[in-house]
Amino acid sequence: MSTDLVDVRAAALEKTAWGERFDLFQPRNIVFWMFVWLCGTGVVKAWQMLSPLSGYFGRALLIASIIGVISAVIWGWWFRHVDRYERQPVKLVLTGFVWGATAATFAIAVQANDALGSLYAKWFGQVWAQDWHAGLSAPFVEETAKGVGIVVLIALAPRLVRTPTDGLLLGAFIGLGFQTSEDLLYSISGATQGFGSHQTDGLVGSIATRTFSDIVSHPLFTALFCAGVIYLLGSPAQPRRIGRGIALIVAPIVVHAVWDSMTALAGGTAVVVVVLMVGDFLFAVTALWIAFVWAHPREAHFVRDVLGPEVDAGVLTDDEVTAAGGWRQQRQYVKAGTDRADKKKRRHLVRAALDLCADLAVSKGLDSDRVVHSRAEIARLREGTKADALTSDRLASN
After folding, report:
1. pLDDT, tens digit (0-9, with 9 covering 90-100), for 371-391
2. Which of 4, 317, 380, 395 is most buried, with most CB under 10 Å away?
């Protein structure tokens, strides 16, 4: 391998800190104790709110909790799947989730929303507060409460939280934690309506409504917000981009505000509500797409730096490394396959290249057992492709 390429790989791994471990217990870090205090406060507040309902509404609480766990697992699996490059340590991901589910929800957002709602009612009247409280409180209070989470993670793991992609994916898990707790609260609220005379109907209705609204909800909002924080602060792996940072911080606040104020903005007209809902959804998805487009080049650049020596050594081809750098590049590479079997093996080769990138990150570029195994797997896939090609040629000649 070229010495220059190896040095470039080492520099990329140093900048990104891919493959490094995370330990939450940091007794000398004041942010760790702040995290423990606020999350502990959130747990206590949650217990104070929910424990009185565990008797008569115990069944509804249990069902809502089970559905919440299942939903969190499904969304969490999807977010980990989207994490295309070196995945963040599970401990760090869970730390973000816990912040969103406890500190951001019960210790900060619930208290601040209630306080701001009371102020709105005193300043502008009960009717105005009922129409606009949600849209003019939650977007600012909740996005800030969740956004503090990425700052906490940066302080706890400054080498691991460095790129906008880190912000997007960790922000999604912070938002998922918040969403899980909020869905539980709304589900219980639905079950307790009418003094609990129709617990099942109220619970099912609330769960159905929240499942629909979760499509454009806290994981998306927080992913955008946290990516904006990374751009705004800058890092060794991402130069400061203030314009992008502000745009990504403002976008989810606007989407959240419109989503929570749809009925008031539409004046009760159902058609206008639908138009606002569709428009808000499209704006949110577009903002998320733009965020990934902005973040992709740097991540792809780091992947190429890490895998560059493998191309020089003949382990991978330049096309395979390019395909490993992004979804669109992978689709183009796979589409160029001659038949279904070839396309399938091209997908496996790209996945194997990403696995090799992850193993190299863990070993810091050294030839560990896992790195050797990943290279052998790539060679096996390539030999399989050649063997299939020879078989096809023989069948064609016969």
Report:
1. 999 999 999 988 865 545 444
2. 317
